[in-house]
Amino acid sequence: MTAYKTTIVHDACATQNLEFDGITVPAFQVHAAMMAALAFAYGTVTTTDQHIA
To answer: Do the Cβ atoms of 8 and 44 come closer than 8 Å?
Structure first.
């Protein structure tokens, strides 16, 4: 099995408010939850400045 190193530049990503079961989730919480999940299981989450350095 081939493993790939994944980097997510979080401040280069965008989202929007989402709704589930009648509850609106603000975009900043959607972003934080997705970045937390990606950082936990799939790769390195970084900023643009850190990625360029």
So the answer is: yes
2 belongs to a structural domain: no
Task: Count how many domains the chain has.
Answer: 1
| 28 against 41, higher pLDDT | 28
Residue 26 within any structural domain of the chain: yes
* Amino acid found at 25: V
Rounded mean pLDDT, 21-44: 96
Structural domain range at position 13: 7-52
Nearest-angstrom CA–CA distance, 46 and 53 = 11
| C-beta separation of 45 from 35 below 8 A | yes
